[in-house]
Amino acid sequence: MSEAMMDFNDSPEQANYRMQCRSWLAEALTDFDGRRPHFPDFDVPEVMAAARAWQSRKAAAGYAAISSPRGYGGGGGSRIEQEIFDQEERASPAPFTDVFDIGLGMALPTMAAFATPEQKSALLPPLIAGRDIWCQLFSEPSCGSDLAAVRTRAIRDGTDWILDGQKIWTSYAQHADYGLILTRSNPDVPKHKGLTCFFIDMRAPGVEVRPIVQMAGIAEYNEVFFTGVRVPDAQRLGEVDGGWSVALSTLMHERTLGGAGKVRGLTIADIIEGARKLQIGDVPALADGAVRERIADWWIDMEGIRLNYYRALTLLTRGETPGPEFSAGKLMSGRQVQEMAAFMLDLSGPSAIDIGDDSDSAGLAMEWLMAARRRLAGGADEIMKNILAERVLGLPVEPRLDKDIPFRDLF
Ligand SMILES: Cc1cc2nc3c(=O)[nH]c(=O)nc-3n(C[C@H](O)[C@H](O)[C@H](O)COP(=O)(O)OP(=O)(O)OC[C@H]3O[C@@H](n4cnc5c(N)ncnc54)[C@H](O)[C@@H]3O)c2cc1C
């Protein structure tokens, strides 16, 4: 069997593309020593510099936003090609570029759908090339799952809008140049009908970003405060009070980001490797029947997640909109990574407590500490279950008693 035929899920064209990606990655990564932290901390200048350099290199070769149009700095390819490249990149020691994920995965498609041609020409190429970082300013202290309840006010003032309020959980806001923001423009109508979306300059007067340090010692997300922030109406995305449909489009792309098996993290291969090294008594843990049974269960789940993810991708390539497929994948993969990390920590024993070095057990401890966030980011587990209950199982929808009441009267 030739090397190009090894990935039996690929068509011959896809197998060729995969080999092309693999050889480009091997060539482009000869400069990198392959040493990476367990998790990227983009507050560390070297980590950020490596991310920007790698992103720019991918952009120059057409691999930075493969399925986006060439005119804006994308690669002009298909979603499947993007997926193939992502798989190969994840298997390589490429520098982490998570700090660009929101820009590429959410801001780019939202801007492509709602911004003017001039805005796209000005803003998308630097986003794709890793010069500009974008963030998503949706969640607030009093709304996350119930996103339509945002309170950050946008009040019209001539050709501008004035923004006041607070966002929270805003990933990478401390590094961001631009943000997509969902605001309350009209409190006199039901909550979904009085929202307006904008893109904003994160360095505009009145924007204050306060990083939140997580239990693993990294500050990935932030509180962001808006005090009299002036935003030109030209930066509005979609209709006045029509922000909910813009937000839904962004959220659909968010689901494809963390949807299923796409996120980096512990893999079955890592677990097998770890169980081979760790001992139970004086035999490798991998020889233990109970350990093997757990690994087999996870492998089966992972296959389900993977195939389900491909089903969703197939819908996307046909121009259809996947929904519950991504919810199922997100629900299963978030839970699984957390379970696998906890299991491996148990096997590791006391050495797992030390997270301060580059050892395997330190990596596991970080995996475990960071795993919980997957079960909230991009939609909490319970929300995924609600979607599956309603859209797959056909169970009665959740009562939504507030949907016809003016937002102002809800409190
Ligand atoms: C790592 C990370 C990064 C994030 N990055 C961003 C970002 O960049 N930008 C951004 O805007 N947001 C971001 N978020 C926020 C994320 O979208 C929210 O945390 C998520 O939507 C949940 O909202 P919440 O935290 O307000 O929890 P809540 O909505 O208050 O939920 C609290 C609990 O109640 C449960 N619950 C809520 N409603 C229901 C219901 N109807 N039925 C059953 N159970 C329910 C939830 O499942 C959860 O367990 C991020 C979150 C994390 C963890």
Describe the structure.
The protein contains eleven helices and ten strands. The chain has 411 residues and is an alpha+beta fold. It has three domains: 3-96, no CATH class; 135-247, Beta Barrel (Butyryl-CoA Dehydrogenase, subunit A, domain 2), CATH 2.40.110; 259-391, Butyryl-CoA Dehydrogenase, subunit A, domain 3 (Up-down Bundle), CATH 1.20.140.10. A four-stranded mixed sheet has the order 1-4-5-8. Strand 2 (153-157) and strand 3 form a beta hairpin. The longest helix has 29 residues, at 289-317. The protein is globular. 37% of the residues are buried. Bound molecules: flavin-adenine dinucleotide. The site of flavin-adenine dinucleotide has 22 residues, from strand 1 and helix 11. InterPro entries: Acyl-CoA_Oxase/DH_mid-dom, Acyl-CoA_Oxase/DH_mid-dom_sf, AcylCo_DH-like_C, AcylCo_DH/oxidase_C, AcylCoA_DH/ox_N, AcylCoA_DH/ox_N_sf, AcylCoA_DH/oxidase_NM_dom_sf, Mycobact_Acyl-CoA_DH.
Quick take:
The protein is of the alpha+beta class and 411 residues long. Helix content is 42%, strand content 13%.
Labels describing this entry:
alpha+beta, Butyryl-CoA Dehydrogenase, subunit A, domain 2, Butyryl-CoA Dehydrogenase, subunit A, domain 3, 3 domains, four-stranded mixed β-sheet, four-stranded antiparallel β-sheet, 10 strands, 42% helix, disordered N terminus, binds flavin-adenine dinucleotide
